[in-house]
Every structure is written in C-alpha cells, then in structure tokens.
Specification:
The chain is mainly beta and about 80 residues long. It has no helices and seven strands. Helix content is about 0%, strand content about 45%.
Length: about 80
C-alpha cells in the first residue's frame, strides 16, 4: 500500500481544529475523502482551509495543533 502525503500550501501556523473548543477536523486513524478539510493554516490573522486532494485511509498527522509549518512541509500521510 502506498503512502500519500498532504503538504502545506503556504507557511504559517497549522491548526487541526476549526476553533479551540471544537473537535479536530480529522483524528489520527480516520479515513479521508478527496476534498475533506484536514486543518487550517493561519497567515497574518487570515485562516486558509487545508483539504485532501485524494482519498485515503488511516490519516497520520506529522504536526501537532498550533505548530508552525513551512510551505511544502508534509502535514499528514494517508494510506492510498
């Protein structure tokens, strides 16, 4: 089974939840459909949704909530 990577489209701060009191978009081990939101990246007080471009199983996040991310950095991996 191949691994599919979800990469950050821009630098900023990666958030796994839409708000501090909300559950995460996806928990480790969940399946992901193409177009599903997996997180947000904040850049200068502007939030940009990060979506999966492919479907996959058992998402594994490589970043914690509120962790700095660089453009092109791998955010999560899926089993494709």
């Amino acid at each position: 089974m191949s691994k599919v990577e979800i990469r950050a489209p821009m630098p900023g701060v990666f958030y796994r939840k839409p708000s501090p009191d909300s559950p995460p978009f996806k928990a480790d081990g969940e399946d992901v459909a193409s177009g599903d939101a997996v997180g947000l990246i904040e850049v200068m007080k502007s939030f940009h949704e990060v979506t999966a471009s492919v479907s996959g199983r058992s998402i594994h996040f490589l970043l914690d909530d509120a962790e700095a991310v660089m453009a092109g950095q791998v955010i999560a991996e899926l089993e494709g």
